[in-house]
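Workshop exercise sheet. Pairs work together: one partner reads the sequence aloud, the other fills in the structure field after running the prediction. Swap roles for the next sheet.
Pair: D.N. / O.F.
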Amino acid sequence: MDALRLAPTVGIVASLSVLVALLAPFLAIEQGSAVGTYYGAGAVNGLSVGLFAGVALVAFAAGREGRSPPDTVAGVTIVLGLFATVLALLWALTVPRSLVTQLSTATWIDGHRWLVAALALVIPAAAGWYARAQRLI
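Structure field:
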């Protein structure tokens, strides 16, 4: 598989991964209101990362299937990925740790916000790779 198809595929997988990671607390924590508090506790709502990841997912898919100009898709997904990453980091840095530890006894929830931020970082990386494969950068 060449880079012109592999790079947007990685972007699609990264975007889906962010969405699944954002969904995980809703499935694992019994009190839905506690999850809403968790996502709303930071400087920005953690679920806003999902908005940018979702739009990037659609854009990557459109570029991969040739439904949109690949150079436009590369540029758009770089911007969307950077916004998603900045929002994820801003949210992860400002969520009080005491709130996170009160949500559940599961140990994975403590690193959840950092996982979301790490997965969000893959979106602009894949978009940059896609632009590079097209010799745009």
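Discussion prompt: The chain has six helices and no strands. What would you look at next?
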